[in-house]
Design a protein that fits this description.
Layout lengths: L1 H8 L1 E4 L6 H18 L4 E5 L5 H9 L6 E2 L24 H11 L3 E6 L2 E7 H9 L6 H4 L2 E2 H7 L3 E4 L5 E2 L4 E3 L4 H7 L5 E4 L3 H9 L4 E4 L7 H9 L3 E4 L4 H7 L11 E2 L6 E2 L4 H10 L5 E4 L5 E5 L1 H5 L5 E5 L15 E7 L13 E4 L5 H12 L5 H14 L10 H14 L3 H12 L7 H6 L2 E6 L2 E10 L2 H22 L3 E8 L4 E8 L2 H9 L8 E4 L4 H14 L1
Parallel strand pairs: 1-2, 1-17, 2-3, 9-10, 10-11, 11-12, 14-15, 17-18, 18-19, 21-22
Antiparallel strand pairs: 4-5, 5-13, 6-8, 7-12, 15-16, 20-21, 22-23, 23-24
Length: 553
């Protein structure tokens, strides 16, 4: 259970959906920087989508494990206080279960077998043993262990094997004379009696399974020997007959009263609070058991716990718009935003540390933060940040590239021991293998959604170093792009296929007024279903501003 507490302390560093190399590498490098500065390991890099081939190549080259993929950051059960009520054995007596409830101040106890939950016993179940009327065979029906009976009565064993259970017979009080008792006692019965020698002997000879001798009455050696020869257990207790009869039901194992696992509403640590709230409010149960991903019992929660549900803490890198953020971002506590894009309408609960600079890459900003903090940049981290800059600036060919980006990349390449030009070619070559990808995978591998004057626009982009790849991709994407607006819930869809070497983009589009926007923005005609945009390689600095201006006119 301790690991769930630790998770509450974790702070996720995460990039945008459909992550690119900058988004993933910046998350890893910034989490590393924050851990170095804080002297902790609570900053954890995550990713909000599947890795593209280019990013996979980079991570493999530098021997870095990909950040864990998460699709939703809404509060989960693991983020609230889970009461670590220890499970009890199914053979625990009702009395001991009640004592445990009282000492722990709980109204429900889990019953476990190993790490698995097999049932629950509640205060209401305990009350049944006191107030519900049972027949005189209830102890044997419940397979009550003799050890439970001894504990409940504070008894002492005079003779007999107490490791077994009371599995047949009834309970009775030997208040009659021996002649009447012969007609009442059957083989296997449990007899409650006092110090009368004749009654004790009669019960043994009638093959009673157990004698309970009350008020601390002594048992003679003769009776003990006879009982032993008949395999009859004798238990001595200081309680009187009335008290013994009253207490015996409390020796019944909790398994007899418990709610079976199949009838229990149980939640997982990974369940979202929002999804379980309605279920909890509709049920009368006070406590709900929690299991981990492997089905192991973890603890319990109540409705009160939901009132104290904690928001996950996150740091956003390489984006600041809600439309690009991971699902559930509005239910988190955003601590920081590190980005190099335009400002978007993302809301925060409290003031946050926000660093936004007009640079070609978020990795460049993080490089500056390493330098400002005086933290040494290790070769692997240098390789990741350099790869992010090379990717976002298209090997320094993008108009978004600044002298700061180039300076940072050169310094980082020296530390990482790589040649920026050669490494860039390898990266883009790995990312340009489109033959094995579906039209959907290609279109959404680097896709971002924007809202412009209440109109939602989606822009996807691929980069290649081979003009032949563009023609192949276009043939795949032309029919697919017609489905994007309806499937993705947007008004217009644009798809840029950028040839890095010629610094030219080829664009296809769909949606109402998409062609009119293209004509207004770039003044070019469509050729074979394609717009040829010379010297346009940057979605952020060249393409998006142009269509925004066109849409505002």
């Amino acid at each position: 259970m301790e690991k769930y507490r630790d998770r509450n302390k974790n702070i996720m560093v995460i990039g945008h959906k459909n992550p690119d190399t900058d988004s993933v590498c910046s998350a890893i490098c910034y989490a590393n920087l924050k851990n170095k500065i804080s002297g902790t390991d609570c900053f954890i890099a995550k990713r909000a989508g599947h890795l593209n081939k280019e990013t996979q190549f980079v991570l493999k080259k530098f021997g870095v494990t990909a950040p864990e993929y998460i699709k939703d950051v809404r509060p989960q059960v693991m983020n609230i206080e889970i009461r670590q009520t220890k499970g009890i054995d199914r053979n625990t007596s009702v009395l001991n279960a009640w004592k445990m409830m009282d000492s722990l101040d709980v109204v429900t106890l889990p019953i476990t077998e190993g790490n698995k939950l097999i049932g629950l016993v509640s205060i209401d179940d305990i009350a049944k043993s006191y107030f519900q009327v049972f027949d005189n065979r209830v102890l044997s029906t419940a397979n009550t262990g003799f050890i439970n009976i001894i504990e409940t009565l504070n008894g002492r064993v005079i003779t007999g094997d107490i490791e077994n259970e009371f599995v047949s017979g009834k309970m009775l009080i030997a208040a009659a004379n021996p002649d009447m008792m012969e007609n009442m006692i059957e083989e296997g019965d449990m007899v409650i009696l006092g110090n009368r020698y004749e009654s004790q002997l009669c019960a043994i000879e009638m093959e009673a399974k157990c004698l309970i001798v009350c008020e601390g009455a002594k048992v003679s050696n003769t009776i003990a020997k006879i009982a032993e020869s008949h395999k009859c257990i004798i238990i001595q207790t200081d309680y009187d007959t009335y008290t013994v009869a009253k207490l015996l039901n409390q020796a019944i194992p909790v398994e007899f009263f418990m709610t079976q696992r199949e009838r229990i509403i149980c939640f997982k640590t990974t369940d979202y609070i929002e999804d379980i709230q309605e279920i909890m409010t509709k049920k009368r149960f006070r406590d709900f058991p929690i299991e981990d991903e492997n089905g192991n019992y973890v603890g319990t929660i109540s409705r009160r716990n939901l009132l104290r549900s904690g928001r996950k803490k996150v740091i956003l890198v390489d984006h600041n718009e809600k439309s690009q953020a991971i699902d559930g971002i509005e239910d988190t506590e955003i601590l920081e935003i590190i980005d190099h894009h335009r400002l978007g309408p993302i809301n925060t609960i409290t003031p946050v540390f926000f660093r936004n600079q007009p640079l070609g890459c978020t990795g460049t900003i993080i490089y500056k933060m390493y330098k400002e903090s005086g933290v040494e940049i290790e070769p692997v981290i240098a390789g990741l940040m350099c790869s992010a800059i090379i990717s976002d600036t298209l090997i320094f060919k993008s108009p978004t590239c600044t002298p700061d980006d180039i300076e940072a990349a050169m310094e980082l390449s020296r530390i990482a021991g790589i040649d920026p030009e050669e490494h860039g070619r390898q990266m883009f070559g790995a990312g340009s293998n489109f033959d094995e990808k579906t039209d959907r995978e290609i279109f959404y591998q680097d896709f971002k959604k924007y809202t412009i004057n209440d109109i939602t626009v989606g822009v996807g982009q691929i980069n290649t170093m081979d003009l032949e790849d563009i023609e192949k991709v276009k043939q795949k994407e032309l029919p697919f792009i017609e489905t994007v607006t309806s499937d993705y819930g947007i008004d217009m869809a644009f798809f840029l296929m950028t040839d890095i070497m010629s610094e030219c983009s080829y664009l296809i589009c769909s949606g109402k007024n998409a062609d009119a926007v293209m004509m207004q923005a770039f003044g070019v005609d469509k050729t074979n279903d394609t717009y040829i945009l010379k010297n346009i390689v940057s979605r952020k600095k060249q393409f998006l501003p142009a269509i925004m201006e066109a849409m505002e006119q």
